[in-house]
Amino acid sequence: MNNLLLDIHDRILTITINRESKLNALNKETLGELHIAISDAFKDHLIGGIIITGAGPKAFIAGADITEFAAYDVDEGKQLAQAGQDNVFDFIENGNKPVIAAINGFALGGGLELAMACHIRVASSNSKMGLPEVSLGLIPGYGGTQRLAQLVGKGRALEMIMTADMVGADDAYRFGLVNHVVEADQLLAKAMEIIRKIIGRSPFAVSSVIKSVNAGFKDRENGFAIEIEEFSRCFGSEDFKEGVDAFLHKRKPDFKGK
Known about the structure:
Elements: E1 4-9, E2 12-17, H1 28-43, E3 49-54, E4 59-61, H2 74-93, E5 99-103, E6 106-108, H3 110-117, E7 120-124, E8 128-130, H4 144-152, H5 154-163, E9 167-168, H6 169-175, E10 180-182, H7 187-199, H8 203-215, H9 223-234, H10 238-248
Parallel strand pairs: 2-3, 3-5, 4-6, 5-7, 6-8, 7-10
Antiparallel strand pairs: 1-2, 8-9
Helix pairs in contact: 1-2, 3-4, 4-5, 8-9
Protein backbone atom coordinates (compact mmCIF):
# COMPACT_ATOMS: atom_id res chain seq x y z
CA MET A 1 0.00 0.00 0.00
CA ASN A 2 1.39 3.42 -0.98
CA ASN A 3 -1.05 5.50 1.05
CA LEU A 4 -2.18 3.27 3.92
CA LEU A 5 -0.51 1.82 7.00
CA LEU A 6 -2.08 -1.44 8.14
CA ASP A 7 -1.64 -2.91 11.60
CA ILE A 8 -3.37 -6.00 12.99
CA HIS A 9 -3.38 -6.59 16.74
CA ASP A 10 -5.75 -8.71 18.84
CA ARG A 11 -8.12 -9.24 15.86
CA ILE A 12 -8.35 -5.47 15.24
CA LEU A 13 -7.16 -3.96 11.96
CA THR A 14 -6.08 -0.33 12.23
CA ILE A 15 -5.97 1.49 8.90
CA THR A 16 -4.05 4.77 8.92
CA ILE A 17 -4.41 7.10 5.94
CA ASN A 18 -0.75 7.95 5.44
CA ARG A 19 -0.60 11.14 3.35
CA GLU A 20 0.31 13.50 6.17
CA SER A 21 1.93 16.10 3.89
CA LYS A 22 -1.43 16.35 2.05
CA LEU A 23 -3.40 16.33 5.31
CA ASN A 24 -4.38 12.77 4.32
CA ALA A 25 -6.55 13.99 1.43
CA LEU A 26 -8.34 11.21 -0.44
CA ASN A 27 -7.19 10.58 -3.98
CA LYS A 28 -8.19 7.78 -6.34
CA GLU A 29 -5.27 5.60 -5.35
CA THR A 30 -6.08 5.93 -1.65
CA LEU A 31 -9.73 5.09 -2.23
CA GLY A 32 -8.70 2.05 -4.24
CA GLU A 33 -6.37 0.88 -1.48
CA LEU A 34 -9.11 1.44 1.11
CA HIS A 35 -11.45 -0.81 -0.85
CA ILE A 36 -8.85 -3.56 -1.03
CA ALA A 37 -7.89 -3.34 2.66
CA ILE A 38 -11.48 -3.26 3.90
CA SER A 39 -12.67 -5.97 1.52
CA ASP A 40 -9.87 -8.25 2.66
CA ALA A 41 -10.69 -7.52 6.31
CA PHE A 42 -14.38 -8.26 5.85
CA LYS A 43 -13.45 -11.69 4.42
CA ASP A 44 -10.74 -12.52 6.98
CA HIS A 45 -12.14 -14.53 9.90
CA LEU A 46 -9.09 -13.57 11.98
CA ILE A 47 -10.14 -9.89 11.93
CA GLY A 48 -13.08 -8.91 14.11
CA GLY A 49 -13.22 -5.15 13.57
CA ILE A 50 -11.58 -2.16 11.90
CA ILE A 51 -10.42 1.28 13.06
CA ILE A 52 -9.73 4.02 10.49
CA THR A 53 -7.63 7.05 11.40
CA GLY A 54 -5.28 9.59 9.83
CA ALA A 55 -1.51 10.00 10.09
CA GLY A 56 -0.20 12.83 12.23
CA PRO A 57 -1.92 15.19 14.68
CA LYS A 58 -3.43 17.66 12.21
CA ALA A 59 -5.98 15.73 10.18
CA PHE A 60 -8.10 12.62 9.99
CA ILE A 61 -8.77 13.42 6.33
CA ALA A 62 -8.97 17.04 5.18
CA GLY A 63 -11.11 16.27 2.14
CA ALA A 64 -10.67 14.88 -1.35
CA ASP A 65 -7.66 15.65 -3.52
CA ILE A 66 -9.15 18.48 -5.60
CA THR A 67 -6.31 18.47 -8.12
CA GLU A 68 -7.52 15.12 -9.45
CA PHE A 69 -11.01 16.24 -10.45
CA ALA A 70 -10.67 19.99 -11.07
CA ALA A 71 -11.20 19.54 -14.83
CA TYR A 72 -13.94 16.87 -14.67
CA ASP A 73 -17.12 17.17 -16.72
CA VAL A 74 -20.62 16.01 -15.72
CA ASP A 75 -20.15 12.37 -16.68
CA GLU A 76 -16.75 12.12 -15.00
CA GLY A 77 -18.19 13.69 -11.84
CA LYS A 78 -20.96 11.12 -11.79
CA GLN A 79 -18.52 8.25 -12.23
CA LEU A 80 -16.32 9.66 -9.45
CA ALA A 81 -19.19 9.79 -6.96
CA GLN A 82 -20.67 6.43 -7.98
CA ALA A 83 -17.37 4.57 -7.76
CA GLY A 84 -16.52 6.13 -4.40
CA GLN A 85 -19.88 5.29 -2.89
CA ASP A 86 -19.99 1.74 -4.27
CA ASN A 87 -16.42 0.77 -3.46
CA VAL A 88 -15.73 2.58 -0.19
CA PHE A 89 -18.46 4.56 1.57
CA ASP A 90 -21.53 2.34 1.07
CA PHE A 91 -19.21 -0.67 1.18
CA ILE A 92 -18.10 0.24 4.71
CA GLU A 93 -21.58 1.09 5.95
CA ASN A 94 -23.03 -2.20 4.71
CA GLY A 95 -20.10 -4.37 5.74
CA ASN A 96 -20.34 -7.39 8.00
CA LYS A 97 -17.90 -6.12 10.64
CA PRO A 98 -17.81 -3.00 12.83
CA VAL A 99 -15.79 -0.05 11.57
CA ILE A 100 -14.87 2.82 13.89
CA ALA A 101 -13.55 6.21 12.75
CA ALA A 102 -10.94 7.67 15.10
CA ILE A 103 -11.10 11.34 14.10
CA ASN A 104 -7.88 13.20 14.83
CA GLY A 105 -7.88 16.83 13.73
CA PHE A 106 -9.70 17.96 10.60
CA ALA A 107 -12.40 15.76 9.04
CA LEU A 108 -13.62 17.76 6.08
CA GLY A 109 -15.51 16.93 2.89
CA GLY A 110 -14.76 13.36 1.88
CA GLY A 111 -13.02 12.87 5.22
CA LEU A 112 -16.18 13.57 7.20
CA GLU A 113 -18.14 11.49 4.69
CA LEU A 114 -15.79 8.56 5.34
CA ALA A 115 -16.20 9.00 9.10
CA MET A 116 -19.99 9.08 8.73
CA ALA A 117 -19.92 5.87 6.68
CA CYS A 118 -18.28 4.15 9.65
CA HIS A 119 -20.56 2.63 12.26
CA ILE A 120 -19.15 4.57 15.23
CA ARG A 121 -17.16 7.80 15.49
CA VAL A 122 -14.71 8.81 18.22
CA ALA A 123 -13.20 12.30 17.99
CA SER A 124 -10.25 14.04 19.61
CA SER A 125 -11.14 17.18 21.53
CA ASN A 126 -9.25 19.35 19.03
CA SER A 127 -10.99 17.93 15.95
CA LYS A 128 -13.07 20.00 13.55
CA MET A 129 -15.62 18.66 11.08
CA GLY A 130 -17.49 20.04 8.10
CA LEU A 131 -18.67 19.65 4.53
CA PRO A 132 -17.26 22.70 2.70
CA GLU A 133 -18.07 21.57 -0.86
CA VAL A 134 -20.39 24.49 -1.66
CA SER A 135 -17.34 26.76 -1.32
CA LEU A 136 -16.05 25.06 -4.48
CA GLY A 137 -19.37 25.15 -6.31
CA LEU A 138 -20.03 21.48 -5.45
CA ILE A 139 -22.08 19.45 -3.02
CA PRO A 140 -20.98 16.38 -1.04
CA GLY A 141 -20.83 13.41 -3.41
CA TYR A 142 -19.96 10.48 -1.16
CA GLY A 143 -23.22 10.26 0.77
CA GLY A 144 -22.70 13.35 2.90
CA THR A 145 -26.09 14.94 2.27
CA GLN A 146 -27.82 11.74 3.35
CA ARG A 147 -25.74 10.54 6.29
CA LEU A 148 -25.31 13.95 7.90
CA ALA A 149 -29.09 14.46 7.91
CA GLN A 150 -29.58 10.99 9.39
CA LEU A 151 -27.12 11.73 12.18
CA VAL A 152 -27.85 15.35 13.12
CA GLY A 153 -31.28 16.02 11.60
CA LYS A 154 -32.40 17.82 8.46
CA GLY A 155 -32.15 21.38 9.75
CA ARG A 156 -28.64 21.14 11.15
CA ALA A 157 -27.46 19.22 8.08
CA LEU A 158 -28.78 21.87 5.72
CA GLU A 159 -27.16 24.63 7.77
CA MET A 160 -23.79 22.88 7.97
CA ILE A 161 -23.70 22.02 4.28
CA MET A 162 -25.05 25.33 2.93
CA THR A 163 -22.86 27.53 5.14
CA ALA A 164 -19.81 25.24 4.79
CA ASP A 165 -19.09 25.98 8.45
CA MET A 166 -16.96 23.64 10.55
CA VAL A 167 -18.05 22.41 13.96
CA GLY A 168 -15.80 21.54 16.86
CA ALA A 169 -15.75 18.22 18.68
CA ASP A 170 -18.04 19.31 21.52
CA ASP A 171 -20.73 20.57 19.14
CA ALA A 172 -20.34 17.44 17.02
CA TYR A 173 -21.00 15.35 20.12
CA ARG A 174 -23.96 17.52 21.12
CA PHE A 175 -25.43 17.19 17.61
CA GLY A 176 -25.01 13.40 17.59
CA LEU A 177 -22.38 13.47 14.85
CA VAL A 178 -19.82 11.64 17.01
CA ASN A 179 -20.29 9.07 19.78
CA HIS A 180 -17.40 10.11 22.04
CA VAL A 181 -14.93 12.98 22.49
CA VAL A 182 -11.59 12.33 24.21
CA GLU A 183 -8.21 13.97 24.49
CA ALA A 184 -5.99 13.39 21.48
CA ASP A 185 -3.63 11.04 23.31
CA GLN A 186 -6.57 8.84 24.31
CA LEU A 187 -8.21 8.64 20.88
CA LEU A 188 -6.99 5.26 19.67
CA ALA A 189 -7.28 3.76 23.14
CA LYS A 190 -10.97 4.74 23.28
CA ALA A 191 -11.61 3.35 19.81
CA MET A 192 -9.85 0.13 20.80
CA GLU A 193 -11.88 -0.10 24.01
CA ILE A 194 -15.15 0.09 22.09
CA ILE A 195 -14.19 -2.33 19.35
CA ARG A 196 -12.83 -4.88 21.83
CA LYS A 197 -16.23 -4.95 23.51
CA ILE A 198 -17.94 -5.49 20.17
CA ILE A 199 -15.66 -8.27 18.96
CA GLY A 200 -16.19 -10.07 22.25
CA ARG A 201 -19.83 -10.53 21.26
CA SER A 202 -21.21 -12.86 18.59
CA PRO A 203 -19.83 -11.86 15.18
CA PHE A 204 -22.88 -13.46 13.55
CA ALA A 205 -25.22 -11.31 15.66
CA VAL A 206 -23.13 -8.14 15.20
CA SER A 207 -23.35 -8.56 11.42
CA SER A 208 -27.13 -8.94 11.74
CA VAL A 209 -27.30 -5.78 13.86
CA ILE A 210 -25.51 -3.74 11.19
CA LYS A 211 -27.82 -5.04 8.45
CA SER A 212 -30.99 -4.49 10.50
CA VAL A 213 -30.16 -0.95 11.66
CA ASN A 214 -29.11 0.11 8.16
CA ALA A 215 -32.35 -1.23 6.71
CA GLY A 216 -34.33 1.36 8.68
CA PHE A 217 -32.65 4.13 6.69
CA LYS A 218 -33.27 2.68 3.23
CA ASP A 219 -36.41 3.67 1.38
CA ARG A 220 -36.84 0.34 -0.39
CA GLU A 221 -36.44 -1.81 2.71
CA ASN A 222 -38.69 -2.51 5.68
CA GLY A 223 -36.44 -2.32 8.71
CA PHE A 224 -38.87 -4.20 10.93
CA ALA A 225 -39.13 -7.04 8.42
CA ILE A 226 -35.33 -7.23 8.07
CA GLU A 227 -35.00 -7.32 11.85
CA ILE A 228 -37.42 -10.26 12.08
CA GLU A 229 -35.53 -12.09 9.34
CA GLU A 230 -32.13 -11.50 10.97
CA PHE A 231 -33.52 -12.38 14.42
CA SER A 232 -34.79 -15.70 13.12
CA ARG A 233 -31.50 -16.44 11.29
CA CYS A 234 -29.65 -16.13 14.59
CA PHE A 235 -31.52 -19.16 15.94
CA GLY A 236 -29.84 -21.30 13.29
CA SER A 237 -26.33 -20.10 14.10
CA GLU A 238 -23.63 -21.88 16.07
CA ASP A 239 -23.07 -18.60 17.92
CA PHE A 240 -26.61 -18.75 19.34
CA LYS A 241 -26.08 -22.30 20.60
CA GLU A 242 -22.71 -21.33 22.08
CA GLY A 243 -24.10 -18.18 23.69
CA VAL A 244 -27.00 -19.98 25.34
CA ASP A 245 -24.80 -22.84 26.55
CA ALA A 246 -22.28 -20.39 27.98
CA PHE A 247 -25.04 -18.47 29.74
CA LEU A 248 -26.57 -21.62 31.25
CA HIS A 249 -23.20 -22.92 32.42
CA LYS A 250 -22.00 -19.52 33.63
CA ARG A 251 -18.91 -19.39 31.44
CA LYS A 252 -17.50 -16.99 28.86
CA PRO A 253 -18.74 -17.78 25.32
CA ASP A 254 -16.32 -18.71 22.57
CA PHE A 255 -18.01 -17.33 19.47
CA LYS A 256 -16.91 -18.41 15.99
CA GLY A 257 -19.10 -16.14 13.86
CA LYS A 258 -21.01 -19.05 12.37
